[in-house]
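FORM 7B - TANDEM STRUCTURE REPORT

SECTION 1: FIRST PROTEIN
SEQUENCE AND TOKENS:
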Amino acid sequence: MKSPRSILVTGASSGIGAALARTYAAPGVALALGGRDRARLDGVAESCGAAGAEVTTAIVDVTDAAALAAWIEAADARAPIELGIVNAGITGGTGVERKRETRQAIERVLAVNLVGAINTIEPLLDAMLPRGRGQIALMSSLAGLRGLPYSPTYSASKAALIAYGEALRTKLRKDGMRISVICPGFVDTPLDDSITGPKPFRLSADRAAAIIRRGLARDRARIAFPRALYWGTLLLRFIPTRLVDSVMGKVAVEVPAPAPPHRVEPSEPPSGAPVQK
């Protein structure tokens, strides 16, 4: 399958999003990169530009639907988007000592991971459907396949993305849309670094990006990795729930509360309009 030449990535300032931007960067490729950290996003843009890509960046908050749609519309006007990578997300959980997540934390995780993803997908579909072609990748997680006792809302948000992405793939395939759901395990990223606990089969962000790119090129419905952890997660469905609960409940994991909402400074584009790099 021909590699996309115009790609939009949210959450591109670090982690898997940054690694995906770098792996696609090449001469003749237009990259529209959105993130919340200006310094890190500029660093990603610089490395992608050095690889020959034409790069634009924007400080965007995926919970601001209007600003996000304006940015996507502007990016599509410059170079019709062939691949949209819906990657922005945050983590959050109860940790070892806390029994429950706060209402504020629950609402924040759902607002970014689920509603923010839908805020991104809708304007992408508005652009792609009239053309009768396009590809969208939704960044879920293996946590969406089995709820983690230390991250209930994060798990729920990622499970919802799996269901949403699979439904869209089936519904819109006849309209020329290719939609994939990505389910990573542990990946060496700042988000993953904030979690204290066992991280089996952890991969580098660059390795994860290579796996994702290959899966998207093959139009895989679900891109889940590492394979051993993926199959192990699926196997949990066939083990008595009481036993699974007993084992998982003994794993000590500390997950910090989600970061507060990013405030767009007056010097930054308030509408999510891109900044040419």
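SECTION 2: SECOND PROTEIN
SEQUENCE AND TOKENS:
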Amino acid sequence: MITAEIKAALRVAQRNELTEYYVYSKLSAIERDRKHADILQTIANEEKAHAAFWETKTGEAVVPSRLKVFFYIACARVLGITFAVKLMENGEKLAQVNYEKIAQVLPEAKRIEKEEQAHEEELIGMIDEVRLKYVGSMILGLNDALVELTGALAGFTLALQNTRLIAVTGLITGIAASLSMAASEYLSTKAEGEGKDPLKAALYTGIMYVITVVLLILPFFTLANVYLALAATLIVVIIIITFFTFYISVAQEVPFKKRFLEMAGVSLGVAVITFGIGFLVREFLGVEV
């Protein structure tokens, strides 16, 4: 017998499946690789069939969550289809407890649960996005910029005591370092010969470096107090690390906490050390600006 509790769980499952049908259909429409697009549409059709099955049990029509559809499509356009799909699949994992409850009354729920699990495996095997292929280059540019520029800005803050001068010095340092890192990544990728385009690897490294540089020095262009600007920069560092670590943890399925603590510890640790160096330079070398 289908109780009120089970029927409520069925409606949730029905709406989730219908929402995912619209997400996969739209992802199929924006995917340029025809093979990937066809698989996405096949999965969309399966989700639609699941929703239709649940409707026969609830006897009610439901509407998809338009907010979720918009959110996942926006994620796909900005961060890539792989990220959007895996984020959504993680949401499906959280919903599996509903299938367990439903299966006690409707054994067919077990079949649907297995199909949902198969979706994720199929998706992982099918998608080979360029941005994930070059994620190592992105990490290199981001991590180097965070460590080097955070440390440099901390040192400049105490040694120079002028926000505009610190910002300009940091910008020059950052741009020079980004060109150096991009060139190094080009030569390194070319020497390794791992099937990656050296130019693309260099561009990903350089672009990530420059974006990080701009975000880190922005507080020094907008705030007058050097210590307030440095504090704002450190907050930006934490935000960048949090966002990028979350992206990597979802797209590559790696632990979030360990990578976050590692990146944050290195960047902030270097900042503390170089802040101390700036203090020593100011006190013992008599640098005044």
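SECTION 3: OBSERVATIONS ON SECOND PROTEIN
The chain has two domains: 4-128, 131-284.
The CA atoms of residues 27 and 192 lie 34 Å apart.

SECTION 4: SIGNATURE
Preparer initials: ____
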